[in-house]
Amino acid sequence: MFFHPLDFLIIIAFGLSLWAQFKVKGNFQKYSQVPASSHMQGAEIARRLLDQNGLYDVKVEHIRGALTDHYDPLKRAVRLSDTVHSHASIAAISVAAHEVGHAIQHSEAYGALVLRHKLFPIVNFTSSIAPFLLIGGFLLGSLNLLGLGIIFFSAVVAFQLITLPVEFNASSRARQLMISEGMISNQEETGVKKVLNAAALTYVAAALLSLLQLLKFVAIFSQGNRE
């Protein structure tokens, strides 16, 4: 009853998502074993890049966990995980520079980042409600519930699509900053690209999977209306 031609593409996108997660972990682990020629730890790289861009008020903080690194725009803090903060590897400095890229985006009011921040409160609400509306619409055969669920889920998909240029831009800034500051050699640039590109692929896979799911729900809703 719920099978749809798009299901085949959804399965492929799901497989791509799993592969992307495996890839990012594999590349991070691999380049965590490659020392950076600068001998600078992730926290040192982040602090230096922030200062070079006049962001003296942005803090660099340690956060527990692995790959939990992020930039907090409310607290204006770059938070680096256990495997990044105090490690001087290619993987560590790549991730640290990427998070600094987000801090610079924030300071420059980068358009896609501003839009993402504005959408976040909405998506935080719709992402928790959409699954119940969609399931309820299917189980009860209610097009009204299904339609409302599609609207809520659309906000989630839009957020994920907007995230893509934000992440790619932050990675591009990270590479350019480290090159311009002489923090990496030409040989190390390849490793930096692999670490950052693998991370970006996870966002692409997640957005593609959500978009295909949305298209499936819209197709089912349209068919229900015709019937």
TrEMBL record:
Name this polypeptide is given: Peptidase
Record Pfam families: Zn_peptidase_2 (PF04298)
Keyword Transmembrane helix: yes
Entry keyword annotation includes Membrane: yes
Source species of the chain: Bacillus weihaiensis
Residue ranges of the TM segments: 6-22, 119-140, 146-168, 200-221
Keywords: Membrane, Transmembrane, Transmembrane helix
